[in-house]
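Q: Hi! First time doing this. I have a protein sequence and I read that you can turn it into a structure. Is that right? Here it is:
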Amino acid sequence: MMNTLYKTLAGIVVTGCLWSASVQAQVPAAGIKADGMLKVAIYNDFAPFSNNANGIDADLAAALAVKLGLKLSLLPFPAGDDVDEDLRNMVWKGHYLGYGPADVMLHVPVESVLQAHNDKVTIFAPYYREAVRLVVDTRKVPNYESINSLEGKKIGVEKVSIGAVLMLGAEDGKFRDDVKILPSATEALEKLKAGELDGVVANRSEIDSVLGKDANFQMNEIAFQRLPVKGWLVGMAVKKDNAVLIKALQDATNELIASGQMRQIFAQHGVQLVLP
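A: Yes, that's right. Below is the predicted 3D structure, encoded as C-alpha cells:
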C-alpha cells in the first residue's frame, strides 16, 4: 500500500475522442513528446487504484489518452517519503535514478497546503473523494453507534496508515490492545471476511473493492479529531507551465464524468464513484 499519501494527509490534516483539430495540434507543442505519447505516472502497490499497472488509475490513464488522441505510456513508480518528493520526481524534475518526469501524475491530493508547498506544479481535476471509514461485521458488532462500540473488538488496520495512527491514538490509547496491524488494508479486509477480525479501518475505496455489497458488513463514518469526515479530493498534477495540457486534461476529466465513463471505470474495480 502507498504510505506516502498517508503521511502527507496526516501531516496536513486531513467514449470517444472528440477534440477539435486545433486543440490536438496544440497539445504536443505544450510539452507532450512529439511521438504522440501521453506519459502518465501512477503509484505502485496501491490497490484498487494501481497495482502492477492495473487498477482504476491505470484505466483512467488509458481513457485520458484516448480523449487527447494520444497513445498511453504508463510509468508506475514506488512512493517516496511524501507527496512533495513524488511530485518532484514524477512531475517537474525526474528521479535521480533516471526515470520520470511524466506528463501527468494521477492520485494527487487536491489540497491547498500541498499546492502551496509545490509551486512548480498545478494540482487540479479532482475525480474522486476518498475518506477513511470503519467497516464492521454486523454479526459481531450489530449496533455500531460510536467508536466506543469497538471496545473489546478486534480492529484491523494497515501499517503506517491514517487508520493505524488514529485507532492507536484514539481515546488516549483506549483501543491500543485491540488493534491488529496488517501489512495491507486488503489483507486486513480479507481477514475480516474470514471472521478473524470484527472490523477494519481503511479507505472507502479499499473497503468497496474487497467487500462489495456483502450484507454482513456495514461501512460507517468514524469521527476522529482533526480528520474531516468528508475526506479529501484526489486529482492529478502537471508541470505548472504546461497550461494547454492542464486545460486538455481538465476538459477530458469533465467529459469522462459527464458521460458516465468515470463511474464505469470505478465500477469495474468494485468501487462506487464518489464525486467531489
